[in-house]
Design a protein that fits this description.
alpha/beta; Immunoglobulin-like; 39 strands; 9-stranded mixed β-barrel; 8-stranded parallel β-barrel; 33% strand; TIM Barrel
Amino acid sequence: MADIRFIVSNQRLHGLDANLFGNFLERPSWGGELGVEGAVVPNTHTLQPEVLKRIRQMEIPILRFPGGSDVDYVDWADMIDNLPGRPGPRPVSHPRGNEITNYFGYDEYLRMCEDLGIAMHLVVNFADAMLQRKPLADAARYAASLVAYCNASLNAQLPPKMYDWPGLRAQNGHPSPYGVKYWEIGNENWFFVNTLLAQGLGHDEIDRRYLDCLVAYVDAMRAVDPSIEILVDVQFKRTSLMESIRERLGNKVHYFVEHLYTPWDIKQVLKDGQPYPIQSLTEQEVWSTWTVVPEVNNSGESTLNSTVLTQARRLGYKMAITEWNWNGWWSFDYQPGTKWPPDSGFARGVGAAGYVHAFMRAGDAVAIGSQSLTVGNRWGITCVRADKSAQTPPYFLPTGQMIMFYAKHHGDHVLSVRSENVPTYRQPFEMAGLKPAERVTYLDVVVTADNTAIYFHAINRHFSQDLPVVIDLSAFGGLAQSVDHYIFEGRLDSDPPLPNTKESAWFREQTVSLTSSELRATLPKRSISCLKIGRVDVPAYSVEYVSHNTPTVAVAGETKAVQITVRNTGSRTWVAGGQNPFHLGYHWYTAEGQEVSGSLWADNRTELPRNLAYGDSATLTCNLSIPRAAGNYEVRWDMVEELRTWFTWQGAPTLNVRLTVNPEVVEPPPVGSLSVSASHNNQQQGADNLQQAIDNDPSTRWSSRLTQRPG
């Protein structure tokens, strides 16, 4: 049998934002779930220590808070202390007739994020405006008041009629601003559509109201802090609405939001379009269906097809998937005493990894991902399962372990990879949101990289076979021979429980060796792998001159257009703009190795067309100024980070080309022509080149630079 091969290219497809591996710390009040509110030490504002320990272990880059559906039905000020005019401690909130305590509020969340180095992401109430529960100006100002509580400095000039929220924050123990960067306006605003349709509004009128409300909120919130990045919920998925957001708000908005859950409740199963008895399903059939998420492309790999994604790309916005997970359960008419179908939590975890691979493939646009639910006590999408009474130790569910696995092991950009001989299978079942597919690849692979390593991410969907692979890394040099193989595995329902834990999945590590430019590894059945191939001593400043057409003969004083392709082979990203941009420049040397004075040539530097990260390349057209005196020279091309360093100062070699520079040919004046400037400063050849024409003859002139021979 031919080897399963993956050929990894040094071609950078797009960046990869670490915030894609974020999480959602919700405080729901329905469905029996309390979220983080059910994970505090009873009757305190402190998280249970073992819960906090597991949140720390997850290495979460960005954390969304506090909702969720309830955010539109809770007064945010109920979640802080010392509110003027409110007697006693924080009240119990009653969103939509439910009940939720407020022990873990804004300051608890914000301080935890500060302590753990997590980027903060808050959601504000939008229903007050959309459902006209308050006048629009009041609703927008109240959302902006939360921005003021979190981000405004003490004694800051706040908008008119706004309370001194920064002063209250200081009273609550945090005088300095928290600096919350990410602000989401509303949650699943499509909930409001049916309400407004029932009130007699049409879709176009609802869109106009949405836009008016959105503009008011954006302006009010940015009036408090113009540096915030705003996420807008466009789950109406109406193209005209998204276009109108671009027209009216432009770059005041940064992200379009979408939520993705699948498969929801599985009430029946179809096989090849025909009903199939649920209790007849085998573990392999369930596994091979549940791990194909969200859908697959023509190659059988997980992919994301989304109207919001398409429009975000077209309109120049990023995309934030601020709620997502493998979210499904059996929901059929179960008869007591009959067999319950396979119901593997680990299969859910591996299925959720399909979402992650789809997001990484769309990383040019998808910049934030917030997996539901960080902490909970009931729902199956919990990352950390907590006991409200604190009697049972908290533990991880597989979907949470999976996102932790990717958060710990990934690069900052995605590389191109080509595959050969990867086996596939046909998936015939439909289970609610999980659809049949003619071609599913057993190995779903994405490769990422940064300045320290290459990361080979692989989902092995095969139920019963370990799959050996060959990874071709010949496009790279300077790779470590010892490779870390991180593995995420778990148990099925038919496997015995793990001893002394309620967890059903685990991590392990092993080491494999890189031989020459090939890495051979075995990917275990029913697993997720990350092979981390380290880069050896990647310098900060390094460049590869891929190709060039520098001339070897030129005329003194002329300027030549030269094309040079450069590749960044260092760890520092070459920034095209800003105060310290990276440029391509050069210096001239004599044949004896002495640097030529800058007065004899123009110091032209070439800008980059875009930022270039490790492995990126660009072809530049450079204006090479030839020295104004004839002779034999060497031009040394060099990259420079302006006002900081030339690359050669950091040990990077220059591109050296020897040139013969011939004298400038001066045509004699036409016979009978007597018109010539008698005295001039030849600015084209340097401000210091003062010349005097003799006898109205420009071919005989005194120059301040050259030895003179009158006559």
